[in-house]
Amino acid sequence: MNISAITLTYLSAVFWILPAIRQYKTSLFRYFLVLAVSDLLGLIFYYYLKIEFSYFYIIVSFCLYVSLQQFSYIERKKILFFGGGGLIIALSFIKLGTTIDLSILAILHLLIIFRILYLFIMKVAQKQTINFFYLVLAFYEFTIILKFLNFLFELKVEAETYFYITTGFELLVGIFFTTFREDSQKLVYKLK
Asked: Which of left, alpha, beta for 26 (phi over 0: left; psi -120 to 50: alpha)?
């Protein structure tokens, strides 16, 4: 990576701490906390411990999925979560190949999108409101899956240009999540 790409990577990692601070005491705080910590830890693991992002990010993706669950649900399904966590950790350290690693990441992020959409639908059903915060979050997760698809299917996009575009977009989304909280009334549309 050239100097500007490295600078943008570090800037992005530091910047994503802000949404975690902003979302403090909301139901999605743990999700944003995992995002904030994962970028910083990912850089440390990659540059100092020489552990590739894909191995580390499989664990992070699983943690993101778990962070969207209620504690009571995790408690009821603890064998499933501990078993899944153990499997994910094992898979992250076995060199299965880039295609399999990216496929696992894509599946985990699809599960995250489904969970976010489930939370969105539950808010609509319970409160008769549409909270656009969840839709932006689902769209953000969708763009992450597009990154994986670019590597899996080589979409003929120049890697450096794609990196700048997606990282720039993620910074814009980070600004959105730093500006608005999950409970921001400006993002809520009442159906009745």
From this structure: beta
Residue 5: band (very low, low, confident or very high) from pLDDT cuts 50, 70, 90: low
CB 29 within 8 A of CB 20: yes
- Yes or no: say if 174 and 18 are a contact pair by the CB < 8 Å rule: yes
Question: 140: domain range?
Answer: 3-190
Indicate the number of domains in the chain: 1
Q: What is the pLDDT of residues 66-105, one digit of tens each?
A: 999 998 888 888 888 888 888 887 877 777 777 777 788 8
Give 82-89's long-range contacts (Cβ < 8 A, gap of 24+): 88/58, 88/59, 88/62, 89/59
Nearest to 174 by CA among 10, 7, 32, 25: 32
The CA distances from residue 119 to 54, 135, 168, 176, in Å, are: 27, 10, 27, 19
